[in-house]
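Mods, move this if it's the wrong board.
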Amino acid sequence: MASIDAPVNEGLIKSVTEYVELYMANYDGSHDFNHIQRVLGLAKHIHTHTPNAFERDPLVVILSALLHDVGDKKYLKPGEDASSLVNDLLVSYGATEELAKKVQAVCLGVSYSSEIKDPTRVQKLIGLYPELAVVQDADRLDAIGSIGIGRVFTFTGARTKASMAESIQHFHDKLLRLQGMMKTEVGRQLAEERTERMKEFLKWWGEEAAFSGSDAVPALA
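Not the wrong board. Structure tokens:
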């Protein structure tokens, strides 16, 4: 298994890391720099433990993991173009046009909503850029499990006026589906364990939420 920790353009990675940390500083806790660091760690783990690592460019994996939320439509800043933001940034830091194009393509392919709309397109993109499977799995793994539970309530509390019950619906609408959308074997294995944690949480939630009905509240002595 190939390591991803070998030196690969450390100067570019350092510059991008510093940029992303500053860029994400105003994001809510569900999509902050800590999220980026976890996704990066997961991407490295998946890349290292997935066969045929030589087919993937470790620099593309690292940069895409770092930049995958830059230009996210939920946080896009006025005047920013999500279709070219990552590409232009990398070129400005001295990356080749080929590298910048690959990372931009991977970042645009990570989106869950885009895959739901056109899953065939994502499969074609993975054929062209196998790094996408790694980064996409890493990002989705951070959306589930105990971290995912925390991120759901952090996001809805910061960005919407959804009730806790509406937040719970998000698990059924999206998060419980992610296990079946993993592209790598490592991703599937990790997703299975994290999905079980969410199911256990939802069972506890159901038991406790049952007391919101007047008939379910025991009378006080």
